[in-house]
Amino acid sequence: MSTLDTTLRIFPRLHAPRSWRLVERNIASSRGAWLVFVSGFFEPLFYLFAMGVGVGALVGTVDVNGEAVGYREFVAPALLAASAMNGAVYESGNVFFKLKYAKTYDGVLATPMTVRDVALGELTYTLIRGTVYSIGFVTVMLAMGLLESPWALLAIPSALLVSAAFAAPSVFGTTLMRSWADFAFVELCTLPMFLFSATFVPADTYPDVVRWILPLTPLYHGVELLRAFTLGNVSWLVLVNIAYLLAMTGVFLVLADRRLAKLLLK
Predict the structure, then answer these.
(1) How crowded is the C-beta side of 232, counted as CA atoms within 13 Å?
(2) Exposed, middle or buried: residue 191 (CB in 10 Å: 0-12, 13-18, 19+)?
């Protein structure tokens, strides 16, 4: 064993947070299942090709704040937000398995790691997954010529914020599930958001009732934030979107921490 390895084992807190140990464990365990890791990236990508390219040729342009925008440019940032959401939501299945069946966290808590380290570790790993999705999707958008505004540089960090806003409630929701059948409720929440968060048509085309509900949903704020940056149509409203996503991340991270403590320390 090298001197460096010995030093890192003796002084683990000096080179990384304890929560990073769980991240390293997750990365090591997922090496043989990389297809599953990237699977959530392809669904919104296929939608981009089908809707943005296929339907976009029929639609032409849409009106965004009085400005005509190509349909591909309109749909792409919304699908980037959906990709960030998928990265977080799909990872909740792994958390559920480790919590209910593999009992991974029981072994983790036998080390100096705490429940908060577990929550932060899972959130960090989910953000890594979201980073992979976001970079891949933005690369496709760049190759298709869909990024023209300098503000588009903020698309990836914004997508990570969207991923965090879904990761925290996903971890919390997982602690409430009793069996795999309960994941149907996850689909019940995410599918309507994906279809009706101004993803494929402008928000002002929805009925009044839907337009009042939209600002309450996280994906809508993610779509609006990413669309503002990729189209260069930035206003003070992006601060509202960012504040909403930050608040959602913070609130559900606290709830997940408390719920995990209740389940794992009983």
Answers:
(1) 7
(2) exposed
Burial of 254 (0-12, 13-18, 19+ CB in 10 A): middle
For residue 13, pLDDT over 70 is answered with: no
Structure confidence at residue 226 (pLDDT)? 94
Task: Classify residue 189 by burial, with Cβ atoms within 10 Å: 0-12, 13-18, 19+.
Answer: middle
What residues contact residue 124 under an 8 Å CB cut-off, 6+ apart? 19, 20, 23
Token output for 245? 């996503």
Residue 233 identity? N
Pairing of strands 67-70, 61-64: antiparallel
53-78 b/e (C-beta count within 10 Å ≥ 16 → b): eeebeebeebebeeeebbbbbbbbbb
pTM assigned to the model: 0.84
